[in-house]
Amino acid sequence: MFGSLFEEEEEGFSLAPSGGRVVKREGEPPPPRGRVNLSGIKNQGGTCYLNSLLQTLLFTPEFREELFSLGPKELGCLEDKDKPEAKVRVIPLELQRLFARLLLVDQQSASTGDLTDSFGWNNSEESRQHDVQELNRILFSALEHSLVDTSGSAFIQHLYHGTTVNSIRCKECGNISQRQEDFLDLTVCVRGVCGLEGALWDMFVEEEMFEGSNLYRCGQCDQLVTAAKSAKLRKLPPFLTVSLLRFNFDFARCERYKETGRYTFPLTINLRPFCEQTEDEDSEYSYELFSVIIHKGGCYGGHYHVYIKDMDHLGLWEPPEEDSKPKVQKKKEVRVYPEPEKDDPLSVLSSIITQEESRSMLLDQLGQRLMDKIGSSWSKKYRKLHGPIGKFLQNHSDVFVLVNNGTRVALKANPPSPVTQPSSPAHTTPGPSSTPDPGSHWFDLNDSTVTSIHERDVEKMYQGKESAYMLFYRKTLLRRPSGALRNPGYKVPPHLLEMAEEENRRLQQRREEFEASNNSVELRLHLAPRYRLENGALKPISIEQKEATNLTFDLRRTVGDLRMIIYQNLWDGDMALTVAKSLPAGLHLYNTLTDDEVSLYSAGILTGTDLFVWNGREVCGATVQTGAEWEPMLLTVVRPSLGEEEEDGGGEGEEGGSGLSKESRGFAGRVTLGEVREALGEPQESLLCQEKRGGEGGGASGWRVFPPGDMQRTLKELALKDGDALLVLEPQTQDSRWAAWSFSWGWLGVPLANLPECQALSCVCVLPPTVCEELSVRDAGVRLMTSLSLCPGTAPKDTQLFLYFSVGTAPSSGLEGEIIVERSSTVKQVGNDCVSFGLLVGLSGDGWHLRRLDWCEEVGEALMDEVSNQNYKMGCLDADWSIQGVIHDNPPGNAC
After folding, report:
1. Tens digits of per-residue pLDDT, 581-634?
2. Mean pLDDT of the 470-493 span
3. Which of these is catalytic: 48, 194, 772, 834?
4. Active site includes 526?
5. Is there a catalytic annotation at residue 303?
6. CB atoms within 10 A of CB 207
7. Nearest one of 890, 842, 39 to 500, comparing CA atoms
8. Domain 341-421, classified CATH 3.30.420, yes or no
9. Which of 114, 537, 637, 870 is 20 to 30 A from 450, comparing alpha carbons?
10. What is the pTM of this model?
11. Distance from C-alpha of 63 to C-alpha of 147, rounded to nearest angstrom
């Protein structure tokens, strides 16, 4: 899987990497270590398995001290790795540097980039997910290869090497054939085994029999005989690595799967029952757990992290966060322990198994021996209180071990005394003690994150998709010297100490520079003498004068410090610093900074904040109101006006049409609508209207008159905002040239016949066609400020058409007239009506016909089909009685 991952060139041990790493440009410096004071390792993309193994090796003190004992004379210098004649052992050198950074450099996490470069990884290799068990073997092999001909060439073997012996004993002559095997880690089965001790029992205690059709050829007897095959641990290493076979293959489904069942492993284990030599003291066989590499996920992908016991107390262990939460006090359970012997099944079963030479027996034999001993079966004596015998043995895994798929039971090497340490049937969780040694602090190292955990959290990794994958034990005889406790620099070479100190100095400098730049804000200072109060907002006195003075300041400094800087350079007399904001109406003031002891950051000051410097009372003699409730708004004041007034009125809006003047005015948010009318110089009889926007089209759809009650409400209460239009209508007078009426939206549905009579304009204009009285004002196209002409005559009905016609050889050379016809009339009937009208004014002749006249007064072709419905051919038409006579859509011009 890893291929040439750790290969180095034979000459000089220098590397030719297949691809270089992308060097990130310097930006934000890495954060310092967290509260636990331990450094994590960055994930380069799928390198969590490598990070977990490296952290385990780092927290194996004997490993890192052996590595640190190799100096530059033996390993060379990384600066010379590109020199052909230099022999530089890159992998151990980069591993030394990484360990030194993890121990001494004040950063949250270290990078393995240089180390993986020494492996020869390219970017695609880094992103692949590998197996940590295989990585462990290949890494050790690469280190041994790198350290050939150095004093550390054998330190991997010294720390991790062990041997097993496989024996086959002939049942006929007693001859024993043996074969020794070396190991750096033990691979144990998970499937069908309830825990580590059961797996070791199957491997090193149980015998495999050659019998029946499967006989063994004995070299001594020179014939096929019955024989027994077994294995034992011959040499125990100081550090025992155990790999759990979590991944299996389902031949029925032809797919891999992960074993997620319960698989226990103890915090301390005695290997005496599994060893060839058992005469030494118990301490020689005793191991304690110090690292658990955990895999989370399935067989096709997942994530690794590691639980590690800090042997040298380098980290600052503190209770996990959940311990600080209040917990409900549970009522203490009172246990009544049974008397020993017959009333105590634990004592009875332990005594039965102890009588066996192998300290084990088949489960069905145990039931028979129990009946012989107490004269009763398990079901009659204990089942009601303790459940089935198999479940009872599982619940007391601190005493018993089930092997051979649960068919055989054995006693642990050092079981607790059943009398002095009784167990309750309710106690179902074997493994770590619930009251760990206060000095045995465990940490969860998950890439860059390091957190404290309890020792009892290890047992949560017995089963599930997130479960133990590799176990690391150390002999309990290995004691750490007092000088190593809480001393991360213990036995670190001087040149690596200097490297770490230099990196810490650079990091500190970068952090200071970054903090200074990150906490610097640009403030805009507005000085009161440069402003005046106008329409509720502050505006500059002079356009040419600079409004604000820019000032760069540190957020961590106090308001008092800022005040002193302003005093020294810009201000005399009483000073108030008030947060300001530029609004469409002008500058407005909000909260004043009153506490000189707080920092600008605590005061909520950000970069780009506007600060107004004044005496806190007035600006140019005018009292200034502060706060969000007095926030000014810029309104558009609209008034009706004639053409010459429009030119002075500030422009014409899209929906306003001709005859409207607009003016932008600012008003404080807390002034009432009545005060606005007064400020505009309008009498109390004037009407104020608010523009109503259409819901869909977005254009103006009309105006809403403010009722008298709204005159006492503030602009804030009326929900007015910047840019809103306010129409001012003066009271109606008898001599007024304009007549104005104010309606809500409903007025657009009023029939034209119900409108008051309009005064005729004294100007000359072109009249559009007369419209039906039944049409609504909206359908008739009447808008605000539309001019209406009141003409004599009856208006057409909705079934009639109002037509203009002219008689002559040219559209403007003959007689003009008006006629109302039915919509169902034919062209010939319309022509006859026009002839009848013409006879009344002295026209004669019978050769008249109709032609269409368009809006450009261009004469069209004659209307030939005189029997067709004229409404089908034309709308409102003009008729012409001559050869050049024309019926047209719009009048060429009429004066009123």
Report:
1. 999 989 999 999 999 999 988 888 888 899 999 999 899 889 998 998 888 989
2. 95
3. 48
4. no
5. yes
6. 14
7. 39
8. yes
9. 114
10. 0.59
11. 14
